[in-house]
Each structure stands twice: as C-alpha cells, then as structure tokens.
Amino acid sequence: MSLHERLQIHEVRTLAEDWSVLRKTRLSFRRSDGTWQEQWRETYDRGDGATILLYNRARRTVLLTQQFRYSAYVNGHDDLMIEAPAGLLDRAAPEVRIRAEVAEEAGVRVGQVEPLFDVFMSPGSVTERLHFFIGPYEPQDRIGPGGGCAEEGEDIGVIEMTIDAALDAVQTGRIRDGKTIILLQHAALHIFA
After folding, report:
1. How high is the pLDDT of residue 164?
2. Which residue from 41, 137, 151, 181 could staple onto 54, CB 3.0 to 4.6 Å apart?
3. From CA 97, how far away is CA 115, in angstroms rounded?
C-alpha cells in the first residue's frame, strides 16, 4: 500500500506567511494495524536549500562561516554559529545556488562541486530538503571579502580551520550546526583519511 493510500488530508490552515510559511493540517493516517487515526500537524515551509564544505586537501583545511542565529540563541547558544556556507535555492538549481552562496558568504569562487546527497534535516515539522556538496578551494579562489547580504540581515565572518581543529570544535561543542557536522564527518572519512 502506498503512502498516498494511507493518508487523507481534511483541512489545511495557514498560520503565518512571512519569511516562510507555517501551516496547520488536519489529516487521517492509516496505521499499520489498518485503523485510521486523526492527527494535527504543523509544517514549516522555508523552501529547499543547499550547503557545501570547501576543503583544501594539501593544507588539510576547511572554509567555514560564522554568524548570529537567533533560533540557536533563544535555545541557549550564546555564541555565533560556525557553519558550512548554505542558502535557500530560491527556485535555482542546487549547484547554481550553492556557487552563488559561496561567493556571497565566503567571498570564494568555487570551481568543481561534487554533489553528495540530499536529505530532510528535520522531517518532523520542516519541509526543507537540503542538498549537500563538497568542493575544493585554493587561496587564489578568493574574489571578495564575503560577509553575506546586509539587506538580508547577514553579517558573516569567514574562518579557515584545519580539519583536525574543526573536528575538535565539534567535540567541544563550538561547532553545533548539524549540516556542518555531517559535512565534516564526510570529509574526515573520504577526503582527509
């Protein structure tokens, strides 16, 4: 039986529609035992995104960003978030969008990008599908200071770290961003092993 046959949507309400869309849905789901169960679910739709880990194999370094994230702050994180460059697709192809984000956030023109996978990072309530990439960089790939887009409220710093320092920052809690941790673990196993 397909998932489509196990689901009935009864009502969808829009609760908020600003930067993203928050909806509340009343649905019925056919459980494994064949009974129907009514549920209410909220979904937060912010669009799909892309992220990339820029690495320099010879120097054993990665290029990361740091910025203020209000959601992390109100949940007890009293520091800037250290992250891999990322952004929403805004109806662009993932590879096209990630190249633009790297230039905007990190001030780097990235050449080759390798797609890894796409995943749902928080499927319990967030609709976003995140496309993961890795790409090499060299010091001469710098085309500007980075920093993000001030009109979008971005004030982004750029950090170059050794892979060992980045992995240590994960262990000590300095790096707490899920997408970045996934990319660093991938790099440790497949690029810097």
Report:
1. 98
2. 137
3. 13
Measured between alpha carbons, how far is 126 from 177 in angstroms, rounded to an integer? 16
> Tokens representing 106?
């990190």
Q: What three-state secondary structure class fits 19? A: coil
Q: Give this prediction's pTM.
A: 0.94
Read off the pLDDT of each residue in 63-70 and give the average, rounded to a whole number. Answer: 97
59: CB partners within 8 A, 6+ apart:
162
Partners of 40 in beta bridges: 26
Distances 170 to 67, 79, 81, 93 between C-alpha atoms, Å: 16, 14, 12, 30
Where do we find the tokens 């990665």? Answer: 62
CA distance linking residue 104 with residue 108, whole number of Å? 8
CA separation, residue 160 to residues 48, 54, 84, 157 (Å): 27, 10, 11, 10
Q: 23 and 45 in contact (C-beta within 8 Å)?
A: yes
- Which among 189, 187, 151, 192 is positioned nearest to 64, based on CA atoms? 187
Question: Which pLDDT band, with edges at 50, 70 and 90, does 80 fall under?
Answer: very high
- Taken in order of first residue, the domains within the chain and their CATH numbers are 3-45 (no CATH), 49-190 (3.90.79.10)
